[in-house]
Design brief:
This protein is mainly alpha-helical and 214 residues long. The chain is built from 8 helices and 6 strands.
């Protein structure tokens, strides 16, 4: 079958080639660090486990008992490798600002994969098995996340023990990490992808070009 590349998705190819010029900014890194941390804490928040801490003394005094869901242990377990979760994100080039980062395949990539499964040979300049590998943007965000977490770990601990009545994003990012002019991404909220009715069919019927014509 003739090798084709879809003209309607050329922007995706160019975005991949140019992604080093659009590395995540500090606001985006902080935003998704807090998303991952809160999700990790939510997963363990319903535990009824009780921990026993301290040494058993000769006097027979019992070890101190504390609830797991308010313990330092829970926080440390949530923080451990928290930035690894960033690698599950993809760049959704069709979305603006920080909304371009989300888990799962982008609308563009999902359409391209669907075409491949239908037998269309699509060339993106890299092997098919690498289409789902973390992009340069995402791996850079993961590295920045690790640096930021190390730098602000005491702030996270302060929030966990004393300020959980405040949203973590506001407490960490808004009050400690970002300056007043750096907080724009915190107000960006995803409201869902636009309708894709007829998307695949329209793409399949769109004018196509041989790779050598582009």
């Amino acid at each position: 079958m003739k090798q084709i590349i879809l003209a309607a998705f050329c922007f995706y190819v160019f975005a991949k080639a140019d992604e080093d010029s659009r590395l995540p900014n500090k606001c985006e890194v902080c935003k998704f660090l807090t998303v991952e941390l809160q999700e990790a804490l939510q997963r363990s928040g319903r535990s009824k486990e009780v921990l026993e801490v301290g040494e058993v003394l000769d006097t027979g005094r019992r070890r101190k008992r504390i609830k797991y869901n308010t313990s330092e242990t829970r926080l440390m377990e949530a923080i451990d490798n928290i930035c690894e979760g960033i690698l599950q994100y993809s760049v959704h080039a069709e979305r603006p600002g920080s909304l371009r980062y989300a888990k799962g395949s982008s609308q563009t990539m999902a359409t391209l994969k669907n075409l491949v499964h239908k037998g269309v040979k699509v060339e993106l300049g890299l092997p098919y098995e690498m289409w789902d590998e973390p992009s340069a943007e995402v791996t850079d965000m993961k590295k920045q996340c690790e640096t930021m977490l190390e730098q602000y770990e005491e702030v996270v601990e302060d929030w966990y023990f004393h300020h959980q009545d405040h949203k973590l994003e506001d407490f960490l990012c808004g009050s400690h990490v970002l300056g007043a002019s750096e907080r724009e991404c915190l107000t960006e909220v995803w409201k869902g992808d636009p309708g894709t009715k007829g998307g695949t069919e329209e793409v399949a019927s769109a004018k196509t070009h041989d790779a050598g014509e582009l």
